[in-house]
Amino acid sequence: MKYKTIHNLPLPVIGFGTWRIGGESTPDPRTDPASMNALRSALEIGYTHFDTAEYYAGGHAEELLGCAARESKINRDKLFITSKVSPEHFDHDNVIKSCENSLRRLGMDYIDLYLIHWPHLGMDLEELFCALNKLVYDGKVRHLGVSNFKLKLLKQSQMYSGTPILTNQIPYSLPNHTYLENGVIEYCQQNDILITAYSPVKFRSIRVNKVLTEVAKAHAVTPFQIALAWLVTQPQVITIPMSFNSAHIKENFDAADVELSAEDMLLLGNAWKKTE
What we know:
The chain is of the alpha/beta class and 276 residues long. Helix content is 43%, strand content 17%. An eight-stranded parallel β-sheet has the order 3-4-5-6-7-8-9-10. Strands 1-2 form a two-stranded antiparallel sheet. Helix 2 links the parallel strand 4 and strand 5. The model has no long low-confidence stretch (mean pLDDT 96).
């Protein structure tokens, strides 16, 4: 596994996302066996960064992740756990309470990275960071970040945060260049902020794009692996794919080792522009 280092912290370029683990916006216990199998597979394969949120399955994703981590017997300090506070809890006391509830569900003493999940119209960012800074000071959270933040809010977050903003988690993939076009990715790359790309392979045309399939064939890997490699080859970019299929979980992990040339990167970066 390759790593990106940000503020002296090395992070694997491929992590494991937990959206749909244990359900979607509410718990769905029927998915628990498949969810636990996916988490166990990821831990056995060697994933160490797991991304979750209090919103995922109404907190049940955190419970299952905590259970799988304990089962694995892997030392807590070998794992990097990200979770997020939801917009309905964006006031000082509820931020503290949300974090404490996430810790309880995870069965852990601290969260490595705690994110503001979505920007919310009218939110008091200064109050939010007052609570987040307290969580860091109290040792319940190690690092802070944001998710889905555009430039103005990202810069404000840097001003209010008592510690460096570690990441901005955003939708980013071969066909989705929104945060390239609005300047966020370039700003992050120039200001020591990691970009965590979510939904990296969730697009219908992945199998039919000619450039992608040709590059994948040349490297003897899958189009999905090339799509992930394209992301993590870029400076300051990591990604958090998710799958319930153990073979796909391994393929995603192995995508970190795919070496793309500058020509590959250019061809792939333009591939969807040519088909639009």
